[in-house]
Design goal:
491 residues; alpha+beta; two-stranded antiparallel ribbon
Length: 491
Amino acid sequence: MRMETSISQQQRLELRLAPQILQAIEILALPTLDLKGLIEREMEMNPTLEIEAREALDVQREVNQKEADTAATEPEVPTRESLEAEFERLAENNEQWRMFGGEGKPRGIGGGGEKDKKLEAMNNTADKNESLQEVLESQLHELNIPERDQKIAEYLIWNIDDNGYVRYQLDEEFAKGCELEPAVSVDELLDCLELLQGFEPVGVGARDLPECLLLQLYHDNKANRYDLEIRIVAHHLDDVVANRLPKIAKSLGEPIEIVDEAITFIRTLNPKPGRVFSNTQIHYVIPDVVVDDIDGRYEVRVEDAYIPRIHVSKHYQEMLRAGADDPKVRTYIRRKIDAAKGLMKAIEQRKSTLSRIAQEIVEYQQPFFEKGIDALRPFKMQYVADRVGVHVSTVSRAIAGKYMQTPRGIFALKFFFTGGTTRADGEEKSIVAVRQKVKDIVAKEDKGSPLSDEEIATRLKVDGLDIARRTVTKYRKQLGIPSSRQRKKYV
């Protein structure tokens, strides 16, 4: 068998998306804040983009002034000298950008040079709150203890998770990780852990939930005030979870009313004390669509007040019209102006598509806006896609990560798209509405004799909703509602 390298031609057909379509798809999927950031980045890289910073009143005042001024002047036509000076300035700016960010291929929408990735990450990273480990270390450094104990305590601190727990077994294998001479013993680990368990927040340094709760009870147990609560946590925490109050009362020899009061207090303790210093960033929501109730009629508008209004600089348009002897000037300006126009067109397409989709949502889900969540109807993206005349994937991109402000609150656009079931009378009910019905039934039940899932299913059938018991169980768990045994009240 002969093997060799050769060159051959092959003809084939491929479907490829044009750069303008890819740009429009990317912008359509962006929420308002992300789109604002993209526009600001593009303005840094494209000098032909300008932001309309003037208020409407200033614009109108300028128009009135021009109408009143009869001696209008002719626009200044750029000369060849001015064009060359402008091009030299642009070239100097580009050289400065290369010196600052390094050479690299253009990236992002509309071009631009490669940025310093580390610097960009630093500039776009929000300041973090003080971490749990930093808080514990600051308390440790205030103590006057031997250096060895301080090293061991620091080792333990950085093995405490975000909830405030030490999740590792304090044995000889764990002690080896401290890397001190002589080797750290288990007794030293336990002594330093006891020291940390006296730090704020109370309950930190526990190895499990019972120990965490006991640390908090011991901290406030003045005049033996919480002796009963301590005994319940130490010996009957599983019974508390299972709501076996009669068993707890009998074992402790206390009236069931007193036991119930003690358990109510135990539930006020913090099972995750470390979360007070969580570094989780708060995500602020700015609605992308606003629905206003105007005399019983719902009007939809895309919220674009946070999005900079941009236009192509007239100065650069005049430069392109006037032309220049240097072809580099014409090529540079034309490329930047085309990128600016493409960006503006994609933003307008996003606004138009989002507006039409939101309008279809409001029209279809109008009963929800009038009556509430119980009137939410089953809704599919394919219905909106057919009505708007786009592909269902476009609808999916348009609603991803976006929110709608309504007279009933702020909701994610995906909230309005849900499956459902059909009542006996033919009326369709969404899954969200059915879950809300389950929640309402549980809220109105007799707490001394809570309803089982089978009984809830029976009550739903009376209302015309033929739901299986296992479906009720699934909805109850999704809502975070305990079982009937755990919901039972004994007093």
